[in-house]
């Protein structure tokens, strides 16, 4: 059953990534959009608490839920910003490196050793990223959004570890999600309110400006995929192996890659295609190692 939940998470998070990329190309307030994404999750989670009589049983449940809120706030903000600055295919590959960070943290924090297959996956991924770096002329002064994709992967790995921790604490799902989406909503709302007075319109930007109502409403729609994905992945973590669940759900990058190629018509140089393919194969090898 955990495989079914993990596959649902793959589909929902893939749909979220596609909608993030689409909205990132619009003239709108990103923080207001993401406030809507988290707010609908907050409301659905509260409803879930009432229907299923979910509760908080201690301070650890609360701390994990709030930490998830901060991690989700950062991960979603970085992912959306990455899509606004770089190629969808590149950002999706980089943001899909969550298992890489999970393994690194496990080694640094708990001295967990790496298997031969995991080491092979590491080298293949880094080889692919090295090729991508040169094919896109990425440098410290010209990152082309790559930094945001990597930061998104870092915080999504943080969320995976915390999601698993919530199940180890036997925390009620909707109680955890209420804190996560509630704190995330608060952070995005504050970011939106603080940033409203500092926004300077670019006179060269000819794209139509989205109203606040339209932006927030679109966020509510995207939020349905986000909350569905979180419910699915926490359900999978509660009964399945952490690494395997993360491996399957993380394959949502396939959906975004197909979208970038078929819908966005992104073209690739031969060197860029080799790099992307190599990095993707490395991710698959790394996921098979769990």
List keywords for this structure.
single chain; 290 residues; mainly alpha; 12 helices; 78% helix
Intertermini distance = 18 Å
Low-confidence stretches: none
| String of helices and strands | HHHHHHHHHHHH
Strand content is under 5%
Structure, described:
- The chain has 290 residues and is mostly helical.
- 78% of the residues lie in helices and 0% in strands.
- The protein contains twelve helices and no strands.
- It has helices at residues 2-24, 30-52, 59-85, 88-95, 98-110, 116-135, 146-168, 173-195, 212-239, 242-249, 253-262, 270-288.
- The longest helix has 28 residues, at 212-239.
- The protein is globular and about 55 Å long.
- The model has no long low-confidence stretch (mean pLDDT 79).
Question: Concise description?
Answer:
The model has no long low-confidence stretch (mean pLDDT 79). The chain has 290 residues and is mainly alpha-helical. Helices cover 78% and strands 0% of the residues.
Question: Strands, helices and their partners?
Answer:
Layout lengths: L1 H23 L5 H23 L6 H27 L2 H8 L2 H13 L5 H20 L10 H23 L4 H23 L16 H28 L2 H8 L3 H10 L7 H19 L2
Helix pairs in contact: 1-3, 1-9, 1-10, 1-11, 2-8, 2-9, 3-7, 3-8, 4-7, 4-11, 5-7, 6-12, 7-9, 10-12
